[in-house]
What does this fold into?
Amino acid sequence: MSFIPMFFVIPLVSAFLIPILGKIYKPLVWIVSTVASFALFVLALYGITVTQEIPMIVYKMGNWPPPLGIVMAFDSFSALMVLVISIIVFTGSLFSLRYMSRYTGQWKFYTLFMLITAGMMGVSITGDLFNMFVFLEIAAISSYALVAFGVGAEELEASFKYMIMGEIGGLTFLLAIALIYAKTSTLNLADISNSLQVMGHTTFFWMVLGMMLFAFFIKAALVPFHSWLPDAHPAAPAPISSLLSGTFIKVLGIYTTARLVFNIFGLTRANDPLFFNILIGFGLLSISFAGLTALSQKDYKRLLGFSSVSQIGYIMLGFGIGNYEGVAGAIFFILAHALAKGLLFLTSGAVVHAAGTRDLDKLSGLGERMPTTAWSFRFGSLSLIGIPPLVGFFAKFYIILGTIKAGFIWVALIAILLSVLTLGYLLKIENSVFMKKGKTDAKKAPFTMRIAMVFLVVLIVIFGIGFQTIINFVVGPAAHALLRGLEYSHLVFGSFIMNF
Amino acid sequence: MSTRQGMSLIVKTVTNIIVGFIFIYGVYIILHGHLTPGGGFAGGVIIAGAFILRFLAFGSGAKSEKKSLNTASMFESAGGILFIGIAILGLLLAGTFFLNFLPKGTPFYLLSAGIIPLCNIAISIKVGAGLFSIFLALAAMKYVMED
It folds into this structure.
C-alpha cells in the first residue's frame, strides 16, 4: 500500500461521500470531513518522516513510467506544503461545526471544503504540468463557490470579481502549458525541465515563464494583481477565509512559482540576477503597498486580507534573495504565516459568530467576554509581527539574515522597518475589538471553535520554541529540495522510483 | 392544470418518440468510448440532453424539480465514488493507484481495454447527473425569483 495517492484520494472520496451520507444523517457530514482531515494530518507527518531518508519519492499512476504517464513527485518541499494544508484544513473543519450551523445546505459546504483540499494537495505533490493545472482549477473553482457561499450581494460580487481575475490567471497558465507542449512534446515536469535546458534561455523560455508567473502572481495576490483578495477573503465564511489566506494563495501562487522557477526552469541567483531582483521588487511592493492600505481599513476581515497580501510579499522577497537562508526563510514563512493568519481569521469568525458584525468601529469590549479568542488573537498577531520566541520571528529572521548575507542591506532595512506596519494594523484590531471597554452581549466562543484556535496557538508556540528542530527536519530539507535546482529531473528519472 | 403544463401536444408527441433514441445513442457512445470517438463525457452529455428535453417539453412544478435535483446530485456523487472506487481497486488488488488491473482482451472488441469502459460508465453517470442538475438549478432560479 502506498501513501502518496492517499493525499488526494481521502479528500476526494469524502467529498463524494458527504452528499450521500448527509441525506442519511446530517451530522455525519462534519464527522466525515473532520476525520478525513485528521487522517491527512497524520499522513502528512508520516510524509515528513519518510522524506528524511529519501530525497524524492516518485509514484507512477497506473504504473506508467515517467515521461509517458502522470507521476507524483513527493519531496521535502511537497511534504512541508502538505503538512501546512492539513493543519489548516483540520482546524478549519473543527471550527466549522458551530460556525456553519447558521447556514443552510451544509453538505455543499463540506463537499466543496474537501474538494478544495484535494485540489491543493494535488498541486503540491504532482509531477506533471497539466495535472497541476487540473488540480489548480479544482481548488480554484471550489473556492469561487465557497466565497459565494453566503449568497448575499457582497459575497456574490466578491466571488464574481474573484472568478474573473482567477480565470484570467488560470487560462493564461493553460495557454503557457499549450505552448510548452507544442515546443517540447511533453507535460512531465522533469522532462520539460530537460527539454528547456537543451533549448537554452531563448525568448520562448522567458515568454512562457512570464505567462506562468503572471498566472501565479494573480493566484498569490501579489500587488498589482491583488485587487480580488481583499474582497474575496472577507466574503467567505471564516474557516474558508482561514483556508484561503492560510494555504490557498501559497499553494496555488507561491509553491507553483518556487517549484517552476527553481526546479523546472532552473534559474539561480548567480546566473539570472535580474530575474531575482524583479521578484524582490514585487515582494517589496506588496509589503509596503498592502501594509499601508491595511492601516486604513475599518473591517476586521478586510484588514486581515490586506495583511495577507503584505505578508505574501515577505515570502516572495525570501525567494527573490535566492540563497539558502532566504529560501529557507521564505519556506519557514509559509508555515509561520499559515498558522498565524489561519488563526487570526478563525478569531474573526469567533467574533462574527458572537457579535454579528465585522465593523471595527462597532465592535468593543470583547476581550473580557471572549478571553480565549482574545488571547488567540494576541498570540497570532505577535507571531505575525515577529516577536520571539514565536514561530513568526524565526521565519522573518531567516529572510532578513539571507538578505544581509546576499548584500542587500537596504532591502533588509526596508523589510525590518515595514514590519512596523504589521504591528500598526494588528494593534488597531486589538485596540478596538479586545481592549476598548464597551457594552456587549457576546457569549464565549463555542467549545469546538476554542479547540481549533488553541490548537493553532499551541503549534505557534511549539514550532517557535523548537525552531531548530523545524529548521533541521522540515524547512531545511525543503529549501535544499528547491536549491537542488535541475537535479530535480535526475531524481524523478533516477533510481528513486519506488512504490511507496 | 397538469395537462396544460409544458409545450404543445406536437412537441410532446415528438419528444416521446425521440427521447428514447437519444438515450440509447448516449449509451452507445459511452459503451464504445474505448473504440470510437466519444466516451464517458460525451455520452453523459447526450444522456443529460435526453432528460433536459423531456423536462423542457413536459414542464414541471417546483416540488418535482427539487426532488429531481436531489436525485441528480445523489447520482453525481455515486458516479464520483464509482470512478475513484475503480482507481482504488487498482491500489488494493494490484498495488498501484489507477492500475488497469482487468484483462485487456482483444483490441477493437467491445469487451476489451480493461477498466477503461468501467471508468467511462462512471464518468458518464457523474457528467450526466452533473449537467442535469446544473440545468435544474438554473430552472429553479425561476421559483427563487418569484419568492
Observations:
- Residues 2-146 of chain B form one domain.
